[in-house]
Specification:
The complex is a heterodimer of chains A (160) and B (440).
Chain A: H1 8-18, H2 28-39, H3 44-53, H4 58-67, E1 79-84, H5 87-90, H6 94-105, E2 118-123, E3 135-137, E4 140-142, H7 147-159
Parallel strand pairs in A: 1-2
Antiparallel strand pairs in A: 1-3, 3-4
Helix pairs in contact in A: 2-3, 3-4, 6-7
Chain B: H1 15-20, H2 25-31, H3 35-45, H4 57-62, E1 73-78, H5 88-94, H6 96-110, E2 114-119, H7 124-139, H8 147-150, E3 158-163, H9 173-180, E4 204-208, H10 209-221, H11 223-227, E5 237-244, E6 250-255, E7 258-259, H12 260-267, E8 277-281, E9 290-291, E10 299-300, H13 302-307, E11 316-321, H14 326-340, H15 346-363, H16 370-382, H17 390-404, H18 406-410
Parallel strand pairs in B: 1-2, 1-4, 2-3, 5-11
Antiparallel strand pairs in B: 5-6, 7-10, 8-9, 8-11
Classes of the chains: A alpha+beta (160), B alpha/beta (440).
């Protein structure tokens, strides 16, 4: 097991975050985000380190990681494609978009392509109901989509 | 009609533009009055929570203890995860400073020195936008210790943003507090209510983003002015989010009590292809759906919607045209609540999965006539038997959709289908018997 260590810069960020709360523990969610950004995903070593920094039991950190869907428990692709298929998007063709992405990438829900460039997730309502259908690539929303537009987005990501 | 929450002012998200447009005058005005007077004004204004429960905001504030040796907190609920709701993100993007000003006034009224704005994790962009606005307000002395010199007062308060991480349940107030405390987002048993035992056991008030953004306008223009907008029992404007089968989906700020048909046909541009409306969900996916042939004359406010057997919720209106497959829609809604149930209470944890399985069975043309009553029975056994309202949120769409569209659903099931025992809901888990050997 290789140890996970936060970078000096991130440790400073963590110190700032802890100051926002009267106790250390509430920092666990933001600190896990920082860890995910540094490491790409939340491994067991990450959880151990986070627990150590915040004086928590590793099991408590595990409890957080498994409860919230935005912490990845395995490495995801460079571009994590999230397709919303909830009602408002579904009524405007979200499943066609989801199927198109699936076909195009040749992977299913929560899978990663062989070259580790793309991963796919079917997500719940992202708050884009008025601009449906939508996908999110990592942190960015792409709204008012059509099948063709989605293909263009995937193509341009592949090239970059 | 004047807009309160999202006025049509260019670049209002910039602090200088906000200040030029009467910005931060309400908090100045509020700081010269007694906190109790602020609570009284908000109570009289009739402002009701915009997060779903439509509870009197002033009354909620008045529950905060006056004398306590513990710190008090304000939580601002920007978790916005109810399918069909996309209004709070508009506030973060277009009018963040009015939200900040509302937070300052609320904190002063309830005696809180710290406010946490809980924003759903998926809203990376809007978290950054709001944080930028907050940083600007801090640097100009409108928030934090700078308030002392800026407003010549002893009062100051800090505002922090807390980012969620993809759990619908964290929009439930007690779950939000647990999440903020760095725990799994499990709802708490009430009582004790947050005003007695909230964040870290301290008195806490939780308000929706839209609710708080209304507060500066009430202080500026007076409670009487506010109470005269829209429906008297649910006054003010509402951010109606219209989505689904309409020509111009989007957020429309209009007075409460608008006609549902007016919103759909006049503001949202009607249904594409002039199709008939089969079904409308008036307040986010957890609210009881209405039949398309029964929306004539229905007004959009808490009391009017209650009278027709549904609820205002978050004001997220989902429109479905006549070609919509309602079984598919309901199965998708059921899947959502199955996915989002936190798992604390058995009726919700198990029941949501059962409803999904029955609905998928009907979707695959393997539904039995008995399944419709079974769905209502499962839903009725979730409702009222859980710690938080996710139980109702999961049960209502299923129960009311099946009841109100019974004719529609009857066509999708068959009395010929006999459900083998191993396929009945209560034995859905792995069975040791080969299914083919079991007869009803």
């Amino acid at each position: 097991m290789t140890n996970f260590k936060f970078t000096e810069e991130n440790l400073k960020k963590i110190d700032e975050i802890i100051k926002k709360y009267p106790v250390k523990r509430p920092a666990v969610m933001p600190v896990l985000y920082i860890a995910q950004e540094q490491n790409g995903w939340i491994s067991q070593e990450v959880m151990l380190e986070v627990a150590k920094i915040l004086d928590m039991h590793p099991e408590e950190v595990l409890g957080i990681v498994t409860f919230y869907t935005m912490y990845y428990q395995k490495p995801m692709g460079k571009y994590h494609i999230q397709v919303c298929t909830n009602v408002s998007c579904m009524l405007r063709g979200a499943y066609e978009i989801y199927d198109r992405v699936k076909d195009k990438l040749g992977i299913g829900n929560m899978q990663v392509t062989g070259d580790k460039i793309f991963s796919l997730e079917e997500v719940e309502c992202m708050g884009s109901c008025g601009t449906a259908p939508m996908i999110a690539v990592n942190e960015d929303y792409y709204e008012n989509l059509s099948k063709e537009k989605v293909e263009e987005i995937l193509e341009s990501l592949k090239k970059s | 009609m004047e807009k309160i929450v999202l006025p049509d002012i260019k670049d209002l998200h910039l602090i200088d533009v906000y200040i030029k447009n009467n910005g931060f005058n309400a908090v100045k005005k509020a700081l010269l009055q007694k906190p109790d007077d602020i609570i009284d004004q908000v109570k009289r204004s009739g402002l009701r929570g915009r997060g779903g429960a439509a509870f009197s905001t002033g009354l909620k504030w008045s529950f905060m203890p006056k004398t306590t040796d513990k710190p008090k907190y304000l939580c601002v609920n920007g978790d916005e995860s109810e399918p069909g709701s996309f209004k709070d993100r508009q506030i973060f993007e277009y009018n963040p400073h009015q939200l900040i000003e509302g937070i300052l006034i609320t904190c002063y009224a309830i005696g809180a020195k710290t406010a946490y704005v809980y924003i759903r994790g998926e809203y990376h962009k809007w978290i950054k936008l709001f944080q930028k606005a907050l940083d600007d307000a801090y640097s100009q002395g409108y928030v934090g210790k700078g308030m002392k010199t800026k407003f010549q007062t002893d009062f100051f308060c800090d505002i922090y943003v807390h980012k969620g991480a993809g759990a619908y349940i964290c929009g439930e107030e007690s779950s939000l507090m647990n999440s903020l405390e760095g725990k799994r987002g499990y709802p708490r048993v009430k009582p004790p209510f947050p005003a007695q035992f909230g964040l870290w056991g301290c008195p806490t008030t939780i308000n929706n983003v839209e609710t708080i953004t209304n507060v500066p306008a009430i202080i500026n223009n007076g409670w009487e002015w506010f109470s005269k907008i829209g429906e008297p029992k649910h006054p003010g404007t509402i951010l109606y989010g219209i989505s689904g089968h309409v020509n111009k989906p989007g957020v429309y700020e209009l007075p409460s009590g608008m006609l549902l048909t007016d919103l759909i046909y006049n503001y949202a541009g009607g249904v594409p292809g002039n199709k008939k409306i089969l079904c409308v969900i008036p307040g986010g996916s957890s609210m009881p759906p209405l039949r398309g042939d029964k929306i004539e004359g229905v007004k959009m406010d808490a009391e009017s919607l209650k009278a027709v057997g549904t609820s205002i919720g978050t004001g997220g209106i989902i429109v479905m045209d006549e070609d919509t497959d309602l079984v598919k829609v309901l199965a998708r809604i059921a899947k959502f609540y199955y996915h989002e149930s936190c798992g604390q209470c058995t009726p919700c944890r198990e029941g949501t999965g059962w409803m999904l399985k029955i609905l998928n069975r009907i979707l695959n043309n393997e539904g039995s006539s008995k399944d419709l009553d079974l769905l209502i029975s499962v839903a009725s056994n979730i409702e009222g038997n859980t710690i938080c309202a996710l139980g109702e949120a999961a049960a209502w769409p299923v129960k009311f959709m099946v009841q109100r569209f019974r004719d529609y659903f009857e066509k999708r099931v068959s009395p010929e289908v006999l459900i083998p025992v191993a396929n009945k809901v209560h034995s859905m888990r792995h069975t040791a018997f080969p299914i083919a050997d079991i007869k009803e």
